[in-house]
Design brief:
about 70% helix; A middle domain of Talin 1; mainly alpha; 12 helices
C-alpha cells in the first residue's frame, strides 16, 4: 500500500507503473510471490518436520531469496531482452549513481559520518521496533482487537513509515523504478527473517501462523500481482492522482482486511 502513496506523489497525469519503464520490478514481484508461497507451504508443515530448531521451509525461503537476488543482478547487468517504453521515466538504475539534481549534504561528504549516522539509525530502529511491538500488543488488548488485525492495519502503518519516506523521496527525484524495487525488495527480504525467528524461538514458527496470517500472506501475493500487472500493461491515465492499479490495490486491500473479520480465528 506504500506504492499507492508513491503513485499519488509521482505525477498528476501519469501513473507510477507507466513511468517505471522496466520489467525488472516484475521479476522482483515474482520473487515476492515465490518466497511468500514458501511461507504458505511452510505453515502447513507439522512442527515435527524440522532441521534442528529450524523449519525446512525457512531454510528454503532463505536460499530462494539469495538465488533470486543473484538472478536479479544478472538480469540488470546482462539483460536477455530489449523493451521499448515510450514516455517512461525510470530514473537511476541504482542508488549508487549520483543524481544530477541531488545536492550534496554534509552527511554525504564524509564516509565515516555517514556510517556513524547509519549505525545510530539502525540502533534506534531496532529499539523502536521492540517498543512498537510491545505497545501494539497492549493497545490491541485494551481495544479488544485481534492481534493479527491490529498488526495488519495500525502497526503495519507505523512500521512502514521509513518505506513511505524513502519512496516519496525516490519518486520526487524521478527514481520511479527504485521506488517500486524498494518495496518489492523489502517485502521479499522480510520473510527471510522467519529463519531468524526459528533460531530465536528454538523451534519452527511457521506452523503456528494460523488462518489469519495465511490470509494476509495471500493478500500480499494478490497486491504484488496487481502492481506487476500494472508495470506490464502501462496504463497512463490517473484518477484522483492514482493509476488504475493503485485503485484496484485499495479495493483488494480493503476486501482483504474485511476478510480478517470473517475468517474463524
Amino acid at each position: 500500500m506504500v506504492l499507492v502513496i508513491c503513485d499519488a506523489v509521482a505525477s498528476r497525469e501519469q501513473s507510477l507503473t507507466f513511468l517505471v519503464g522496466s520489467l525488472v520490478p516484475v521479476l522482483e514481484g515474482l520473487l515476492v510471490v515465490f518466497v511468500v508461497s514458501g511461507v504458505l507451504m511452510g505453515a502447513l508443515l507439522p512442527e515435527s518436520t524440522r532441521i534442528g530448531p529450524v523449519s525446512p521451509a525457512s531454510l528454503a525461503i532463505t536460499l530462494a531469496w539469495f538465488a533470486g537476488i543473484y538472478a536479479l543482478n544478472r538480469a540488470r547487468q546482462t539483460p536477455r531482452w530489449k523493451i521499448e517504453m515510450p514516455g517512461s521515466s525510470p530514473g537511476r538504475p541504482h542508488r549508487r549513481v549520483v543524481h544530477p539534481a541531488e545536492k550534496p549534504t554534509p552527511l554525504a561528504e564524509s564516509t565515516a559520518r555517514a556510517v556513524t549516522v547509519f549505525l545510530v539509525g539502525c540502533g534506534v530502529t531496532l529499539v523502536a521496533g521492540v517498543v512498537l511491538e510491545v505497545a501494539g500488543n497492549h493497545l490491541a488488548d485494551r481495544a479488544g482487537i485481534n492481534g493479527v488485525i491490529f498488526g495488519a492495519t495500525v502497526l503495519s502503518v507505523a512500521t512502514a513509515l521509513p518505506e513511505i519516506s524513502s519512496g516519496i523521496a525516490a519518486v520526487r527525484l524521478g527514481d520511479n523504478e527504485l521506488a517500486i524495487a524498494d518495496i518489492f525488495g523489502g517485502n521479499s527480504f522480510q520473510v527471510v527473517l522467519f529463519l531468524v525467528a526459528d533460531l530465536v524461538a528454538g523451534k519452527p514458527v511457521l506452523p503456528t501462523a494460523g488462518r489469519l496470517n495465511s490470509w494476509l500472506a495471500s493478500l500480499g501475493v494478490a497486491l504484488t500481482v496487481v502492481y506487476a500487472w500494472g508495470v506490464i500493461m502501462r496504463h497512463e491515465g490517473c484518477l484522483i492522482r492514482l493509476g488504475r492499479d493503485s485503485l484496484i490495490a485499495i479495493a483488494v486491500f480493503g476486501l482483504g482486511i474485511a476478510g480478517l473479520f470473517v475468517i474463524p480465528h
